[in-house]
Amino acid sequence: MQTYIILSRLSPDALKDPKIYREMADKVSNRIKQECPDVHWQKSFAVLGRFDVVDIVESDNPKQVEKAAMIIRAFGNSTTETLFATPWHEFLDML
Q1: Is 42:58 a contact under the CB 8 Å cutoff?
Q2: What angle do CA 79, 64, 55 make, to 5 degrees?
Q3: pTM of the predicted structure, to 2 decimals
Q4: Beta carbons within 8 Å of 11's beta carbon, 6+ residues apart
Q5: Relative to the CA of 81, which of 3, 39, 63, 90 has its CA 20 to 30 Å away?
Q6: Which sequence spans correspond to the domains of the chain?
Q7: How far apart are CA 4 and CA 74, in angstroms?
């Protein structure tokens, strides 16, 4: 499976009430589980800096990773950037 990193920045309007955030996160998660069965979530982190959330996923289906990112955008009131990730040891072996 390939590893992808999805970086998300929440819209300033998305968090007017922190209670709404949990509902929004559950809605996004459930929708991705239903519509993107080939995307396997590994970890999610809340981060400080340019992005608010870092999700690490694995999939052999890049189209479903794209769809998951679009669901995050549409239902999570976010902008996203998706990165293809190669484990460091595999990168070194490739050189």
Answers
A1: yes
A2: 50
A3: 0.90
A4: 77, 78, 79
A5: 90
A6: 2-94
A7: 19
Contact in structure between 10 and 52 (CB atoms under 8 Å): yes
Tokens 């819209």, residue located: 11
CB atoms under 10 Å from CB of 4, counted, come to 21
Q: How far is Cα 51 from Cα 58, in angstroms, rounded to an integer?
A: 20
With tokens 């769809």, the residue in question is 67
∠ at Cα 5 (75, 67), nearest 5°?
Answer: 40
Q: Give, for all 95 residues of the chain, the pLDDT tens digit.
A: 999 999 999 988 766 777 788 888 899 999 999 999 999 999 999 999 999 999 999 999 999 999 999 999 998 889 999 999 999 999 999 99
Architecture of domain 2-94: 2-Layer Sandwich (3.30)
